[in-house]
Amino acid sequence: MKKNIILLGPPGAGKGTQGQLLSKKLNIPFISSGDALREEINQKSAIGEKVDSFIKKGALVPDYVIEEFIAAVLNKYDLSRGFILDGFPRTIHQADFLNNYLKDINAKVDAVIYISLPEEEIVKRISGRRVCKQCGAVYNIYFNPPKHDMKCDRCGGELVQRPDDKKEVVEHRIKVYKQETKPLIDYYNNHHLLYEVQGQGILQDVTERVEKVLNDRT
To answer: Which pTM does this prediction carry?
Structure first.
Protein backbone atom coordinates (compact mmCIF):
# COMPACT_ATOMS: atom_id res chain seq x y z
CA MET A 1 0.00 0.00 0.00
CA LYS A 2 1.24 3.47 -0.88
CA LYS A 3 2.16 5.38 2.26
CA ASN A 4 3.06 8.96 1.30
CA ILE A 5 -0.43 10.30 0.87
CA ILE A 6 -2.08 13.69 0.35
CA LEU A 7 -5.80 14.08 0.99
CA LEU A 8 -7.78 16.58 -1.09
CA GLY A 9 -11.48 17.32 -0.98
CA PRO A 10 -14.06 20.02 -0.33
CA PRO A 11 -15.15 21.15 3.14
CA GLY A 12 -17.21 18.45 4.82
CA ALA A 13 -15.86 15.61 2.68
CA GLY A 14 -14.48 13.75 5.69
CA LYS A 15 -10.76 14.09 4.95
CA GLY A 16 -9.86 14.40 8.61
CA THR A 17 -11.83 11.33 9.63
CA GLN A 18 -10.42 9.20 6.81
CA GLY A 19 -6.91 10.49 7.49
CA GLN A 20 -7.09 9.53 11.16
CA LEU A 21 -8.42 6.05 10.32
CA LEU A 22 -5.64 5.49 7.77
CA SER A 23 -3.06 6.77 10.23
CA LYS A 24 -4.07 4.13 12.79
CA LYS A 25 -4.23 1.34 10.20
CA LEU A 26 -0.84 2.12 8.64
CA ASN A 27 0.84 3.41 11.82
CA ILE A 28 2.03 6.58 10.10
CA PRO A 29 1.46 10.19 11.13
CA PHE A 30 -1.66 12.07 10.09
CA ILE A 31 -0.67 15.72 9.68
CA SER A 32 -3.47 18.28 9.46
CA SER A 33 -2.07 21.67 8.52
CA GLY A 34 -5.15 23.36 10.01
CA ASP A 35 -4.76 21.63 13.38
CA ALA A 36 -1.02 22.30 13.34
CA LEU A 37 -1.57 25.97 12.59
CA ARG A 38 -4.05 26.37 15.46
CA GLU A 39 -1.54 24.71 17.78
CA GLU A 40 1.31 26.98 16.70
CA ILE A 41 -0.89 30.07 17.12
CA ASN A 42 -2.07 28.96 20.57
CA GLN A 43 1.54 28.32 21.61
CA LYS A 44 2.51 31.75 20.23
CA SER A 45 5.47 30.27 18.36
CA ALA A 46 7.39 32.57 16.02
CA ILE A 47 5.99 30.96 12.86
CA GLY A 48 2.50 30.74 14.37
CA GLU A 49 2.47 34.45 15.16
CA LYS A 50 3.83 35.26 11.70
CA VAL A 51 0.94 33.40 10.01
CA ASP A 52 -1.58 34.81 12.50
CA SER A 53 -0.50 38.37 11.72
CA PHE A 54 -1.69 37.94 8.13
CA ILE A 55 -4.92 36.23 9.20
CA LYS A 56 -5.81 39.00 11.66
CA LYS A 57 -5.35 41.61 8.93
CA GLY A 58 -7.63 39.61 6.67
CA ALA A 59 -4.76 39.25 4.20
CA LEU A 60 -3.88 36.22 2.14
CA VAL A 61 -0.97 34.39 3.75
CA PRO A 62 1.87 34.32 1.16
CA ASP A 63 3.11 30.97 -0.09
CA TYR A 64 6.59 31.53 1.34
CA VAL A 65 5.15 31.99 4.86
CA ILE A 66 2.90 28.91 4.59
CA GLU A 67 5.85 26.92 3.24
CA GLU A 68 8.07 28.03 6.14
CA PHE A 69 5.29 26.98 8.50
CA ILE A 70 4.70 23.55 6.91
CA ALA A 71 8.45 22.83 6.87
CA ALA A 72 8.58 23.56 10.61
CA VAL A 73 5.63 21.20 11.14
CA LEU A 74 7.02 18.38 8.97
CA ASN A 75 10.40 18.62 10.69
CA LYS A 76 8.70 17.44 13.91
CA TYR A 77 7.77 14.07 12.42
CA ASP A 78 9.60 10.93 11.39
CA LEU A 79 8.38 10.59 7.80
CA SER A 80 10.51 7.55 6.96
CA ARG A 81 7.58 5.12 7.16
CA GLY A 82 5.14 7.43 5.42
CA PHE A 83 2.67 10.21 6.15
CA ILE A 84 -0.86 11.43 5.48
CA LEU A 85 -1.11 15.16 4.78
CA ASP A 86 -4.37 17.12 4.92
CA GLY A 87 -4.71 20.83 4.12
CA PHE A 88 -1.43 21.25 2.28
CA PRO A 89 -0.60 21.98 -0.49
CA ARG A 90 -3.25 24.43 -1.69
CA THR A 91 -1.40 25.96 -4.65
CA ILE A 92 0.91 24.74 -7.41
CA HIS A 93 3.78 26.67 -5.83
CA GLN A 94 3.18 24.86 -2.54
CA ALA A 95 3.02 21.52 -4.36
CA ASP A 96 6.43 22.19 -5.94
CA PHE A 97 7.80 23.19 -2.53
CA LEU A 98 6.55 19.92 -1.02
CA ASN A 99 8.16 17.91 -3.83
CA ASN A 100 11.51 19.58 -3.16
CA TYR A 101 11.19 19.12 0.61
CA LEU A 102 10.48 15.41 0.18
CA LYS A 103 13.27 15.02 -2.37
CA ASP A 104 15.72 16.29 0.24
CA ILE A 105 14.72 13.41 2.55
CA ASN A 106 14.65 10.83 -0.28
CA ALA A 107 10.87 10.64 -0.37
CA LYS A 108 8.08 11.55 -2.77
CA VAL A 109 4.30 11.77 -2.93
CA ASP A 110 2.87 8.33 -3.74
CA ALA A 111 -0.82 9.13 -4.07
CA VAL A 112 -3.23 12.04 -3.87
CA ILE A 113 -6.69 10.92 -2.77
CA TYR A 114 -9.40 13.33 -3.90
CA ILE A 115 -12.57 12.70 -1.88
CA SER A 116 -15.34 14.16 -4.03
CA LEU A 117 -18.82 15.08 -2.86
CA PRO A 118 -21.81 16.75 -4.60
CA GLU A 119 -22.32 20.36 -3.57
CA GLU A 120 -25.78 19.76 -2.13
CA GLU A 121 -24.36 17.03 0.12
CA ILE A 122 -21.60 19.34 1.35
CA VAL A 123 -24.15 22.04 2.22
CA LYS A 124 -26.30 19.55 4.15
CA ARG A 125 -23.34 18.09 6.04
CA ILE A 126 -22.08 21.48 7.21
CA SER A 127 -25.15 23.75 7.38
CA GLY A 128 -27.12 20.95 9.08
CA ARG A 129 -24.59 20.76 11.91
CA ARG A 130 -25.76 21.78 15.39
CA VAL A 131 -23.55 21.90 18.49
CA CYS A 132 -24.57 21.71 22.16
CA LYS A 133 -23.65 24.91 24.02
CA GLN A 134 -23.07 22.95 27.23
CA CYS A 135 -21.28 19.69 26.40
CA GLY A 136 -20.18 20.22 22.79
CA ALA A 137 -22.05 17.21 21.37
CA VAL A 138 -22.52 17.48 17.60
CA TYR A 139 -25.71 16.66 15.68
CA ASN A 140 -26.95 17.08 12.12
CA ILE A 141 -30.58 17.97 11.47
CA TYR A 142 -30.51 15.94 8.23
CA PHE A 143 -28.46 12.88 9.13
CA ASN A 144 -28.26 12.68 12.93
CA PRO A 145 -31.03 14.83 14.45
CA PRO A 146 -31.57 15.12 18.21
CA LYS A 147 -34.56 13.30 19.72
CA HIS A 148 -35.99 16.58 20.98
CA ASP A 149 -35.96 19.67 18.76
CA MET A 150 -32.88 21.82 19.43
CA LYS A 151 -32.11 20.04 22.73
CA CYS A 152 -29.07 17.86 23.38
CA ASP A 153 -29.82 14.17 23.98
CA ARG A 154 -26.93 13.95 26.45
CA CYS A 155 -27.43 16.92 28.73
CA GLY A 156 -30.50 18.79 27.52
CA GLY A 157 -28.42 21.79 26.55
CA GLU A 158 -29.37 24.19 23.77
CA LEU A 159 -28.20 23.29 20.26
CA VAL A 160 -26.83 26.14 18.15
CA GLN A 161 -25.52 26.62 14.63
CA ARG A 162 -22.00 28.03 14.48
CA PRO A 163 -21.57 31.14 12.27
CA ASP A 164 -19.17 29.28 9.95
CA ASP A 165 -21.83 26.60 9.36
CA LYS A 166 -24.50 28.94 7.96
CA LYS A 167 -25.62 28.02 4.44
CA GLU A 168 -24.42 31.21 2.74
CA VAL A 169 -20.98 30.88 4.39
CA VAL A 170 -20.72 27.24 3.33
CA GLU A 171 -21.66 28.08 -0.26
CA HIS A 172 -18.97 30.77 -0.34
CA ARG A 173 -16.38 28.33 1.06
CA ILE A 174 -17.27 25.83 -1.67
CA LYS A 175 -16.91 28.50 -4.37
CA VAL A 176 -13.48 29.54 -3.05
CA TYR A 177 -12.42 25.89 -2.73
CA LYS A 178 -13.31 25.16 -6.36
CA GLN A 179 -11.38 28.19 -7.58
CA GLU A 180 -8.30 27.36 -5.49
CA THR A 181 -8.22 23.61 -5.89
CA LYS A 182 -8.97 22.93 -9.56
CA PRO A 183 -5.42 23.82 -10.71
CA LEU A 184 -4.02 21.53 -7.98
CA ILE A 185 -6.29 18.66 -9.04
CA ASP A 186 -5.15 19.12 -12.64
CA TYR A 187 -1.52 19.29 -11.48
CA TYR A 188 -1.63 15.94 -9.66
CA ASN A 189 -3.74 14.36 -12.38
CA ASN A 190 -1.11 15.33 -14.95
CA HIS A 191 1.53 13.69 -12.72
CA HIS A 192 -0.58 10.48 -12.60
CA LEU A 193 -0.89 10.71 -8.83
CA LEU A 194 -4.56 11.65 -8.43
CA TYR A 195 -7.18 9.05 -7.48
CA GLU A 196 -10.78 10.14 -7.02
CA VAL A 197 -12.92 8.49 -4.34
CA GLN A 198 -16.64 9.14 -3.90
CA GLY A 199 -17.29 10.57 -0.43
CA GLN A 200 -20.99 9.71 -0.26
CA GLY A 201 -22.37 6.90 1.88
CA ILE A 202 -21.55 5.54 5.31
CA LEU A 203 -18.11 6.00 6.84
CA GLN A 204 -17.03 2.37 6.38
CA ASP A 205 -17.89 2.39 2.67
CA VAL A 206 -15.76 5.48 2.03
CA THR A 207 -12.89 3.98 4.06
CA GLU A 208 -13.02 0.81 1.96
CA ARG A 209 -12.93 2.85 -1.26
CA VAL A 210 -9.87 4.77 -0.07
CA GLU A 211 -8.04 1.59 0.99
CA LYS A 212 -8.91 -0.16 -2.28
CA VAL A 213 -7.43 2.69 -4.32
CA LEU A 214 -4.22 2.62 -2.27
CA ASN A 215 -3.90 -1.18 -2.44
CA ASP A 216 -4.65 -1.33 -6.18
CA ARG A 217 -1.91 1.20 -6.93
CA THR A 218 0.82 -0.40 -4.82
So the answer is: 0.86
pLDDT tens by residue, the chain, 218 residues: 668 999 999 988 999 999 999 999 999 999 999 899 889 888 999 998 998 898 888 777 899 999 999 999 999 999 999 999 999 999 999 999 999 999 999 999 999 999 999 999 999 999 999 999 999 999 999 999 999 888 999 999 999 999 989 999 999 989 888 888 889 999 999 999 999 999 998 899 999 999 999 987 65
List residues with catalytic annotation.
Answer: 15, 90, 129, 162, 173
Give the right CATH number for 4-29+77-118+171-216 from 3.40.50.300, 3.20.20.70, 3.40.190.10, 3.20.20.140: 3.40.50.300
Q: What single string gives the DSSP state of each residue in 113-155?
A: EEEE--HHHHHHHHHTEEEETTT--EEETTTB--SBTTB-TTT
